[in-house]
Structure formats: C-alpha cells, structure tokens
Amino acid sequence: MTSERTGRKPPSRSRQLRCRRRGVLVVRGELDVVTAPALVTRLVTSRSIRVVDLSEVTFIDAAGLGALCDGARRAPQPIVVGAISANVARFLALAGIDHLDLAERPRLTMRAA
Fold first, then answer.
1. What's this model's pTM, rounded to 2 decimal places?
2. How many DSSP H helices and E strands does the chain contain?
3. With contact defined as beta carbons under 8 Å apart, do 54 and 85 qualify?
4. Is-contact 83 54, C-beta < 8 A?
5. What is the mean pLDDT of residues 63-84?
6. Would you list the domain boundaries of the chain?
7. Which CATH fold would you assign to the domain 13-110?
C-alpha cells in the first residue's frame, strides 16, 4: 500500500514510532487520524520518553497535532518537541501556530491575524 500524498510506502506500524536513543521518541511518516492513537498510547504509557522528534514526519494533520498535545498532557513526565520537519513547520504556520508549548500544559499560541 502506498500513501496517496507521497506515493511511497509508509513505514510499518512497528517502525512508525521508535526510540532512537534513550528518552527520544522518533515519529516517522504520516502523523494523522490513523497513526495518532499510537502516539498518544506511547506517550501515556512510557516513563522514559522525554523528547518527541518530528524531523522524519512527512505529513501531519489536526488529528496528529491533537494527539501530540493530548499525549503530552497525559504523559507521566514533561514532554518536549526536539525537532520538526519542514512539513510539520509548514502545517503549524498554515494553522497560525507560532509556538507549541508542551512543557507545562499543552498550549498553542496563535498569531494575530
């Protein structure tokens, strides 16, 4: 099966979320309504994850962003975003989000129109 957006085969579910090094969760491929629940589950159930690396995310939608915020809010420890891909940066800019603070309570800061 290939992605309609990228034309490439998406990573398998087992490779979508993986810890590259202790405390860093790397998210690969698409972070959308299909893959978002796995992110929430991983963030909520792991005591070792401190950083979420989004540098390998090829697509993100509102469900993916919601999962990131929900998972960070419910995680047993503070979560920070370590890196983002150009696609994630573009999505945040289009959504008018110029600051994503996951340190205390997930909060989105919107730009004034």
1. 0.73
2. 4, 6
3. yes
4. yes
5. 89
6. 13-110
7. Transcription Regulator spoIIAA (3.30.750)
Count CA atoms closer than 13 A to 9's CA, side-chain side.
Answer: 5
| Per-residue pLDDT tens over the stretch 76-102 | 988 888 889 999 999 988 887 766 666
20-57, pLDDT tens digit by residue?
667 899 999 999 999 999 999 999 999 999 889 999 99
Give the integer Cα–Cα distance in Å for 14 and 32: 16
Cα–Cα distance measured from residue 11 to residue 48, given in angstroms and rounded to the nearest whole number? 23
Least Cα distance to 87 among 56, 53, 110, 51 occurs for 56
Query: What tokens does 91 get?
Result: 């999505």
Rounded to 5 degrees, what are φ and ψ at 85? -80, 170
| Mean pLDDT across 12-21 | 59
